[in-house]
């Protein structure tokens, strides 16, 4: 397969991949009349009114803010608890370690739908319904196992001799961990944070179940675009486009780590 | 080498507490409900394995399971080879590589309901490019009314959505192959196909295993995207297992059978993953770490 | 098997190299005879791998030409040059058996099955791999895998040269010796041109007919092990080869004698002629093997006074260190009877035999 064929296939795939996204972008810049009136490949009458609606209507933009809050919470919490656990798995044998690791992975295998009703009851009981914390906690079910898995892979790449040298030099464990060990797995932490962000940002079944008003994510808001005048396609499309933007920015910043990270240090 | 130290449990404690709160407690509830008949908040009757028996005999469940298996099998059969192919086509370094990576990864970062919405719009005959174009070409395409169209649309949507994951995994795997192997292959006079078959594919084994397991798990648990796109229809043509469960649990509020089914659902995934993992390990024997 | 000629070969990464330090490989010309075994020896970063890659075709040199048997191959890619290369780690096809690994290059060239089998048997026997032929290559030990890598290069009868890039790096020390011996056997039997890159002088000196010593992109000397040992043409060669390396002292010329650490040493006529009027740094070099201890009372013109630093009994010889002025002299002595006492600080008389004492001006040997 020579260079030309490769490039051709890749470009064809990219075009097919980006076309639906482009179509939504296209729609977001049109008026509703134009959308239902004539099918055009680019806006005949360019308008930013749809975006204006979203940026000025609190019920719309609060959805984005809510999502970003619980995603950020989840990232911080997942990485923080996963770090010591990954270290333990990487450096020590202890009673039940293999079973524990496996159990952690099974949490990733549980359909979120299974948790719907129990979560609803559990979080209602502890009074966490409709809070950002609730969604962040709920998302930890599948993010923490992933975080532990990825971090353990990166940590195993750091030789044990470094730990031992630090103890001989008189470091206490917390000081060693924070000042010496963490900087060595910087890219691993970055990769893990990226994945936690990704899977939390995109997950909506649990996020919608656990929230109603205060912490409502953008997903739930997007269902209410039907009004007396008919379906507000333009605003819906604009809302959709805006949900892609944070993700695109994050990928751009971690683009050097994406390929490395997807190997999860284990390739 | 790892040392034996049970005090490592202290390091695990935070994880345990968080996940236990979010996973064990709810699961206990599920197990609890699965063996009881809840007539009212105060009236609960222990029914043993009654729900399990009922669920296993439910014809609707069987249909949903079959549809799910067909769906997962089909998308996997397309996503894995396609992902490998695209990864092979990507440049190894430079700005083109960075750009391709970002563009390819884009579908992965779209909230799942937006994915459904994008395709919902895209496939419509009146305002969607794909629907409109197909109709113009004379194809009678309607994903709301026609079961086959609905199936195909859901499949294309999933392939569009998740192939990038396979691509990124395989891309990482390919970059890990030292140049020396390709040089040696050139010296040996190997054809391009031989390079793929004897060098690249064997070295991608670990990565492909991760890809197959992840994709199988996630496609088996899929809910939001098809729900937004087709709502499970027409009829129940595209109602897969997660939606079936949600209908039972939330729609009909039949907690007992729903809980029983939840446990069965989870066990099915666990068994399949275990079987897949063992099979793939056996297929690629020889290498000892 | 091919005669390899390097004509005005140089490589610089920058487009317009002006100073010597711009070059990764400084201009050099050399001819390697068909069937010779050559080692490229030098520390990391000296340019030996660059030179190897130019010969194999992985790197196109910025200046000069490479000829195989008179044919200009400078612009040809690796696969067209008919060479074989063994890398630092074993490169094998994991999914194939040992037999199929060895057969691969032949099958790709359209050989018939019967001939393939015969040739593979031959090579396997030479490498002592016959028992493993049916096994999966990925399950074997590291040194066996390197043998397979080598075997794939040897299996083609028309291969021009076999290039080795530090191939014993991952091999256990006690197996290195076996593999080195195997390489020499193969060289003897097949009479191939072999080029071996290494930073280990023992490997280089035992393996090659001629060693090319390099440092900082420059070829400083080419010669047999004996020539490199006894008459190093460059202070670097003196220092790098030998264990311990050559003793090197700054010295000045005064009144027809060499002054080292304030003491005078007589010069023979040739040395005096070469050094008189020389401008630049003068260095005196003598190998530890040739330093002698003489009677403390002697004051011969080829001796100097030094003090003992340490004397270690190594079993077969003594390794002594003496202080001469501000510098240290290392010496390998057969016996220590001439050393009055081995206590540190004791005075001792050292003799530098004139026929073994070498002089360098600006690091290049003049006498």
Describe the structure in your own words.
The complex is a heterotrimer of chains A (267), B (289) and C (367). Chain A contains 14 helices and three strands. By secondary structure, chain A is mainly alpha-helical. Helices cover 72% and strands 4% of the residues of chain B. The radius of gyration of chain B is 23 Å and the shape is globular. Chain B has a two-stranded antiparallel ribbon with strand order 2-3. The longest helix of chain B has 31 residues, at 59-89. By secondary structure, chain B is mostly helical. Chain B has 13 helices and three strands. Chain C is an alpha+beta fold. Chain C folds into two domains: 4-240, P-loop containing nucleotide triphosphate hydrolases (Rossmann fold, 3-Layer(aba) Sandwich), CATH 3.40.50.300; 247-365, OB fold (Dihydrolipoamide Acetyltransferase, E2P) (Beta Barrel), CATH 2.40.50. Chain C has a six-stranded mixed sheet, with helices on both faces. In chain C, α2 (98-108) crosses α3 (113-126). At the A-B interface, α1, α4, β1, α5 and α6 of A face β1, α1, α3, α4 and α5 of B.
Short account of what is shown:
The complex is a heterotrimer of chains A (267), B (289) and C (367). Chain B has 289 residues and is mostly helical.
Question: What are the defining features of this structure?
Answer:
heterotrimer; A: 267 residues; mainly alpha; MetI-like fold; two-stranded antiparallel ribbon; 14 helices; globular; C: 367 residues; alpha+beta; Rossmann fold; OB fold (Dihydrolipoamide Acetyltransferase, E2P); 2 domains; 6-stranded mixed sheet; 5-stranded antiparallel sheet; 9 helices; 22 strands; elongated
